[in-house]
Amino acid sequence: MNVQTKPNLFHFTRAPRPLIDRADGIYMWDATGKRYIDGSSGAVNVNIGHGNRTVIDAMKRQMDRVSFAYTIHFENQPALDLARDLAARLPGLDRIYFVSGGSEAVEACLKLARQWAIATGQPNRWKIIGRMPSYHGITIGSLGVTGDAVLTPAFEQMGHAMPLIPAPVVHRDRDNLSLEQRGTRYADMLEEKILAEGPESVLAFIMEPIGGAATAALVPPDSYFSRIREICDKYGILLIHDEVMTGIGRTGAFLGGDHWGCKPDIVSLSKGLSSGYAPLGALAASERIVGPVLAMGGFLHGHTYGANPVACAAGGAVLAETDRLGLIDNAAAMGEVLKAELEGLSARFPFVADIRGKGLLTGAELYADPVAKVPLPRELNANVRLIDLAFERGLIVYSRRVKGGPESDNFMVAPPLIVTREQIGEIMGLLGDTLEALAAELDLPVNH
Ligand code: PMP
């Protein structure tokens, strides 16, 4: 269990990290025996918690039968079953395609949309409008629709930087409009962008129904969703919902968009789909989209590890456990408790504001001045300090500096959906200690 001083393995961060030893439920232990609460469910993916025996046993059984069968040669039962079980939960989106992760799922959505345009005699439609800020993945195609001023510029010539409209960061606006009016105003920006780009060239609009990595659980006003669908229909543009983070119960509904009765044409899924037990992602689309593509000769896509039997067996068991343990209802109920607790922390630490979220995807912003919406100075590195101070105390939180659009530091609290009321108390105790330390270090105000 020794950590090499200069390991061969490298990651996107150079910061040294402890070696993980084991994990159970919402807890993880490193090789020194230190315990952490997984307050971010890994990358907001370990929805059913660590060490679930039912999932592990289902995967073992599948490995004993067959671990791999190439999709060109064979169907496999776990993939057929998981597609059926997903379709049953996704009315109108009953054609399913499996990949190995979230970026791959988004890539597959973009390619399916493009092939649909060709198959339906609209070959000039190719632009996919995204939002700034947003996160849709790290591959060249998914970065092309991602709004991030740091991650994307180096690769723009290699892929294609797609048009972006502002994400509906309604809590940052200081106008006299109501939230619903702001929602409509942000949605109208899609129509303006379509008209500026030329409606005949626009293929789709992609959005996270509830913001994730870039906007920390940003919940748009109700008016946003209906207006976006209306605009897409008006111009014959496909609506892609990226539900990689919000899907499979995370927000207290099966899909994030279900809170508003959204009817996207294509949806990407990953993360909670296998809850971290195996790399797995999926797209779900309506027959209206998939039918013409298959009729024209098929989806020009496929990864070696697509529809992997062991990963799909994990996904099937995760869905079954989600139902058996009532995790979607628990996410909704515990999410309310968590948000109320975060509001309490905001009263104690006034630099923490704009608490939001749905279910167990909750977030907040850090401000120098929460009323005037003045961000903390960039050089304070508040997001990194927050993560580190929490980590020292045995709590894992997700925090980022938003890069693109109005700058700010934000953070998310998104524990596994199995979390109990007592465990939320434990998380909040550690988060309170962390914010106390952050306030002392950065000289931020505290109400005692
Ligand atoms: N889309 C969204 C909405 C995400 O949150 C993420 C991951 N944070 C991705 C796509 C990319 O998923 P992955 O990291 O599995 O490639």
UniProtKB/TrEMBL annotation:
Keywords: Aminotransferase, Pyridoxal phosphate, Transferase
Domain of life: Bacteria
Keyword Phosphoprotein (UniProt): no
Pfam families named among the record's database cross-references: Aminotran_3 (PF00202)
GO molecular function, one term: transaminase activity
Gene3D superfamilies per record: Aspartate Aminotransferase, domain 1, Type I PLP-dependent aspartate aminotransferase-like (Major domain)
SUPFAM superfamilies recorded: PLP-dependent transferases
Cofactor: pyridoxal 5'-phosphate
Family (UniProt): Belongs to the class-III pyridoxal-phosphate-dependent aminotransferase family.
Official protein name in the record: Aspartate aminotransferase family protein
